[in-house]
Amino acid sequence: MRRSLIASVAALATVLSPVVSSAQTVLKAVMESDVKILDPIWSGAYITRNYGYMVYDTLFSIDEKFDVKPQMVDTWKTSDDGLVWTFTLRDGLEWHDGKPVTAEDCVASLKRWSAKDSMGLKLASFLSEYKVVDAKTFQIVLKEKFGPLLQALGKPSVVVPFMMPARIAATDPNTQISEYVGSGPFVLKLDEWKPGEKIVFLKNTKYKPRAEPASGLAGGKVVTLDRVEWVWIPDSQTQVNALINGEIDMIGSLDFDNLPLLEKTKGIKILKGTSPGQFTFRPNWLQPPFNDVRIRRAAAYALSQPDVMQANIGDQRYYRACKALFTCDTPYASTVGMEGLLEGNISKAKELLAEAKYDGTPVVMPQPTDLGVIKQIAPVVKAQLEKAGFKVEVQPMDWQSMVTRLISKKGPPSEGGWNAYGTSWSQIDILDPLMNPSIAATCEKARAGWPCDPELEKLRDVFIRAETPAAKKAAADAVQVRALEVVTHLPLGEWYGVFATRDTITYPAVLPQVGVFWGVTKK
Predict the structure, then answer these.
(1) Among residues 142, 156, 214, 147, which one has the least CA distance to residue 185?
(2) Which ranges of the chain have pLDDT less than 50?
């Protein structure tokens, strides 16, 4: 035991050791998770998305008001009938290997993205072809008008349509890429990537930011840091000690148990995230018992939000009850279809279990022990479901192992599968029926959980075709009602993340919706 402890301390000291070159501006951060997957199209983990924003760039992005703005694109136009969209790339775009970014690269990247993302899949169903016009120009030719086309290309979160060289984008979407060349503001220092310890990014000195000021995820990505290191420290108290001692510069996802201490610590700043997250319960439609809609509905009656929020956050300044699938205080916020759900109605849940002849099949739930803001979802859900008569088994594991497990269709839990899990989605992922990946009921092509409901997909298409705000709102309400009838997933409350930094670090006045490192300075 003593040898093991000494080895762990030595390894941590190596990770946190200062960089030799004092001339470099180096920022060391502990993010919400270790980075084990480097394919931002293949994985839906937020840490992989955040890594993607370091290395890759996008055609469009959203600003601080959630409006879509051009990023790699310079100009674009639409034909009179709305079926042909033409995009021209801006000058100076270059891959990290020195080769120019071309229209062919962008087309290949969009094809790979659209095979994995729920919004991309919808776009693909309206698509006639992608067409390369010249080295810097390509077209998206549609069979039918797709109103939210720019919103799809500027999708800010899972799965982000990051651009890659065509040779890399040619990789099967269900196979991870093995080469990590982007055109973004940072370059991955692959030889220093040590899963379980750290991942390193260097400033891309050849990157040409847009001229306009940075806003949200859009505008000029101006980098002042020479080197960014994401070091992995799994223990939250050790993270805090490292921050207080100046061994790291920030904790990107603070365990709320440590908030009171850091709020009182001199030299430490606490910042609140811009967009809320939504705690979510996701059943697996492919495996018993949740292959029966009555049993999924039973869970919807048995669960309730307050205990989940209190157990995971605890500080009432940072959470609120909200039953809206598309989050509260947004254009599509609604409680339609929620009547009686998520109120801990144990008698109704028992009634549905009896009707479905539930036979005690265990509900196996993976639990991410190293992700403080969601690690208590599984134990709380377990207690609530067991009151209704479910048999529940919680299986602890690290977050990256859980992510890998969730995308596997190996079969029942005895063969490495699972029955349900708890997670959190950022608001920027779930604002409407098209964007929300949990809503998509596209069967084998859906996200982990694999809901399959043609009627729900038809309703999502109605939302896409709606042309007025009122029509879109009505369509969104219809989608929510159907999603709750079949139980694609369940919202378990909203919360705001906080992160902690040394007071030597300065961030933009309005924080971007994703934790990015351009526009960040260190004294």
Answers:
(1) 214
(2) 1-21
